[in-house]
Known about the structure:
Layout: H1 3-16, H2 41-44, E1 63-69, H3 74-85, E2 113-119, H4 155-164, H5 185-191, E3 195-203, H6 207-210, H7 241-247, H8 266-273, E4 277-281, H9 296-302, E5 306-308, H10 313-317, E6 327-330, H11 350-354, H12 373-386, E7 394-400, H13 402-408, H14 412-430, E8 438-444, E9 451-453, E10 461-466, E11 472-477, E12 488-489, E13 495-496, E14 511-516, E15 525-528, H15 529-540, H16 546-550, E16 557-562, E17 568-573, E18 580-587, E19 593-596, E20 606-607, E21 614-618, E22 628-635, E23 641-647, E24 664-672, H17 685-695, H18 697-717
Parallel strand pairs: 1-7, 1-8, 2-15, 3-4, 3-7, 4-6, 5-6
Antiparallel strand pairs: 2-14, 8-14, 9-11, 10-11, 12-13, 16-17, 16-24, 17-21, 18-19, 18-20, 18-22, 22-23, 23-24
Amino acid sequence: MNINKMLKGAVAALTSAAALGALTAPAFAASGTYDLNGKGVDALSVHGGAQRIATIGNAKAKNVILFIGDGMGDSEITVARNYLHGVNGTFQGLDKIGQPGALQTSTGKAAESGVGQYTTFSLGGSSNDSLMAKDSKGQLTGSKTAGVITPVTDSSASGSGWATGTKTYNNAVSVDVKGNPQLNIIELAKANGLATGNVTTSEIQDATPAVQESHSSERACYGPQGKWDGTDKNGDGKVDIKDAELAGIGSCLADQLKANGGIGSISEQLLDTRADVTIGGGAKYFNQLDENGNTLWQQAADRGFQTVKSGDVDGFKNLTYKDGQPVLALLGDGNLPTQFNPSVATKQDAAKDKKPTVCTTNAKWLGNQGAALADFTDKALDLLQANPKSEKGFFLQVEGASIDKQDHNANACGQIGETDDLDKAISAALKKVDLSDTLIIVTADHAHTSQIVESQPYYALSTVLKNADGSKTTISYGTSEKNLYSGGQDTEGAADSSKAQGNMSHTGTQLRIAASGPGASRVDGLTDQTDNFYTIAGALGLATDTTSQNNLSNGGKVTVNKDKDGKYSAAVTGFNGDAVLSYQLVDNASKKVVAESNTSTPLSGVRVATAATTSISFADFTPAEGASYTLTVNGRQSGKSASVSFPSASGSADKTPNGGNGSGNVAQGTVKEPTAPLGKTGATVLGLALMVLALGAGAMIVRSVKAGRRWADARRDS
Length: 718
């Protein structure tokens, strides 16, 4: 970058703007006067760009509980209600949320209620429709496409929408179409001092829970070795990286992996985000190995988590709040078993009308042992309410995950049982909270395939169910892209080559959203999935717009430490407006960079330990005698930076009160604000000249070079 050209450009820009300080970034959804039909990808993909009710304010709530029925469209709700309670029946939890007059606060007043629909479209069918397209080895392929309007979403894009307020592509986990991490509700709640929880019946690494605790270009990046289950694959009697290589590393972006200088897989980031309560399945993926060769279970224990592993129901029941020890309870190796045994949809057959299906209880369902989704919810609320942080409030997400998974398999009984589980979880929550200060929202991430029809269709698979009131419901499953009659296997492992399940697909219809509690009426009418983020975050008083989120890093601080072995490290705190940090360690005399982070992609760098201390190790760094160094840490989302200079081992700053062994704090630095824009009165060429004279030409050049670097970083990240 030519410095003279940069300076000439800056002078020209200042001369032509009499009120430069008044310029602001476009408020894409601030006015609320636009027509969404006229918006393209560029406008829709920015944070908040897809809001439909941006001008509607928020009533405040101390707590928010978000219930998600994965794949729970209107049809799935109706199918389950018909079967379980009759066609004129009522769910005791699901149907009461949002129903006027159905629920009261602790003072006996009717709780505020709201019911509406929301749109769920995404901005790409896969990472190929983003700047994060990759090849089979995990390397970026240089895609120039940053989003494509896509009517049918998947769970990761939809979850990212309500978790962050940003529309994105299918497969994305809380990153935008350019791969830039977007802060999620759990991160923002932790930054605001609230207690947090994440509960599901799926693998905890699955899309819906993952969007609240991680950022990933690919939803399948479960662990450092992808989806390896942590077992001995080569039969040599030990579990190591060779087994992972045999199993296949998976579909992670290579530069996202910690071994390559990235922020890590979904499981690893879950430990960094450190929600107070995490309950679900996916235990086997914590058998994977981190960059130091330790299992993620070991890492969790070393970092102070209370851990409960697959099958340990008693361990789950005995969990209690312990200060500084968040809960990680993964009660199944994979997705948790559903309440009902699978049913199988088949082609048209008159015998099904004569003998409709009656669902039977699955012996493997954890509800038989007192560990159903309602029990998870009850335990999570006990733990959160015992947490001193809950004095300020809490956020809890609860997912009934396998409505979707069994819908994919045309498994009516499976999806019904999971809907029943969710209904009972809502009822459990209503017994624990006061709707005068707690907002409960119930919705889904996308619609699905099951369709209630008059009679068995010729063109699709179907199931005929016997309802609780003796009537029959015929369900058609006709959204598979595959040959419906080629044989199949459901997720419970019940294969039958004569009764194909197919691979049923999501549908793109709008979804029901209902709420009860403070601010519930904000869900009325037609909204968008991203509006749900603003409803939740606004109710809790969290930072919702980009500027306020960036300002959460104003308290950023970096401290350099040296241990008794003479190894240096940095402790970074206060960068709560960031998900990712970068750093450079520079020799002050030679100006050479002696250590730096990977910044090759937006998911490269150091993952922020939300509202806690982020450690950066310089294990291979050996300072030269008498030299001094400067460490600069940058927030990759906020743009804030903190620098600290420190001497070598012989320097005076190493003389610490730690027994004279040279260990302890070396030096500390705090965030420096980016150079402020000129004031509202504008600037003139004379004003610029006076600034140059006052600050010195040298300082001006330094700022210009830094601006050039920021510009280059922005170009690379986009």
